[in-house]
Design brief:
The protein is α/β, with parallel strands linked by helices. Helices cover about 45% and strands about 15% of the residues. The chain has one domain: Alpha/Beta hydrolase fold, catalytic domain (Rossmann fold), CATH 3.40.50.
Length: about 375
């Protein structure tokens, strides 16, 4: 005889099974936690070749026998979080893929601002630190130009730099880079438009990393807090999962403060007035005119990026002077674009191929436009 359904009994049975399963996972988790975990990040060897104030320049040399690229790639990360995101671990490292391809990499380490840095502006970073770093690399490599790659806020800085110093840049790569701030797609842009940045900087001097991290968590608390740690609880018996989880947590909470004057200017000039895409931003008394960017441009962004949505990125190529300008939208998020399995198959290899094409002459050359296509009819 078929048993009558009893929702109370069924619910209790499920609860007991869940409790037993949770206990087993907790035991497995304890075994993992008591083992010798490898949670180190950014282990790729480098040499610090240049220092100025808190800022360092790291040089990563490709160990391949034949160098495939004449010019090195200079990578400029954001002032928020750390450039170690590109080198979380072997097998999940954008930097590793670059080096294995025969590409030498220089990477800016912005360091940790202190109270004395609070008056540094965007101009100090772009026309000061970045320009000195570019000049150093060009002199060291005995080259007239280099390839420049910017990430997030560092991509915004790199866009400004390429517009102000186009003669020093062979090609520009922007990744998850906000250049159009007139969008309500995502809470961050809406919040920044209403932010009283003068009160914040007046109270703290620099923008504290802990406050920024809290703000990022509040953009999507269900996913970034509840789902995240619930997923950890379900997988804490998996050693590889735990090691990767801890690596990511170490990166997230290794967050420098942002110099106060730079943070204020980024919010007011970019988020609140959207000056950059309108060619109205001024640095060091000079207007940042995006039409001066005539070098090849690859603009990469994430379709699921909740911090820098596609609408914040996809107007750049129509604003620059280059005719060799391409958008690449990848079906991932702000961080996943660098560390997910998709990044290993698509993101870094696309950059390498794009640079190789221009090195070999298969792409349009700096400052030149392709021939006009014949009109139909």
């Amino acid at each position: 005889m078929e048993r009558m359904a009893n929702p109370v009994v069924d619910a209790f049975t499920s609860l007991m099974a869940y409790g037993t399963d949770s206990l087993n996972r907790a035991r497995q988790g304890m075994e993992v936690f008591e083992s010798d975990l490898d949670t180190s990040i950014a282990d790729t060897p480098f040499e610090v070749v240049f220092e100025i104030d808190r800022v360092k320049l790291k040089h990563y040399r490709s160990q391949t026998r034949k160098k495939a690229f004449q010019r090195p790639l200079l990578v400029v990360y954001a002032l928020i979080n750390r450039e170690t995101m590109l080198d979380l671990q072997p097998g999940r490292s954008v930097l590793e893929i670059f080096l294995e391809s025969g590409l030498d990499v220089y990477m800016v380490d912005w360091g940790y601002p202190t109270r004395k840095d609070q008056h540094l502006t965007i101009d100090d970073h772009v026309n000061g630190y970045m320009d000195k770093i570019v000049d150093f690399v060009l002199a060291k490599e005995e080259l007239p130009t280099l390839n420049l790659m910017g990430i997030c806020m560092g991509g915004t800085f790199s866009t400004m730099y390429a517009a102000l110093h186009p003669e020093k840049i062979n090609s520009l790569i922007t990744t998850v880079t906000p250049t159009n701030f007139d969008t309500n797609d995502g809470f961050l842009h809406s919040w920044m438009k209403e932010l009283d940045v003068d009160k914040l900087i007046g109270a703290w001097g620099n923008m504290p990393a802990d406050v920024m991290n809290l703000g990022f968590l509040l953009l999507n608390p269900a996913r970034l807090m509840l789902d995240k740690y619930n997923n950890f609880a379900r997988n804490m018996g998996d050693r590889d999962f735990v090691e990767n989880f801890v690596r990511m947590e170490k990166w997230i909470f290794d967050s420098p403060d942002v110099p106060g004057a730079t943070f204020r200017q980024f919010i007011t000039d970019c988020y609140q007035q959207n000056l950059l895409i309108q060619n109205k931003m001024v640095l060091g008394g000079e207007t940042v005119d995006l039409r001066n960017i005539t070098m090849p441009l690859l603009n990469i962004y994430g379709k699921k990026d909740h911090l820098v949505p596609p609408e914040a990125c996809n107007r750049l190529i129509s604003a620059v002077g280059s005719r060799d300008a391409r958008d690449l939208c990848i079906n991932t998020g702000h961080i996943g674009i660098y560390v997910s399995s998709r990044s290993q198959k698509e993101f870094a290899p696309e950059i390498i191929q794009w640079l190789a094409d221009r090195e070999s002459g298969r792409g349009f050359r700096h400052g030149h436009r392709p021939p006009e296509m014949p009109k139909a009819g």
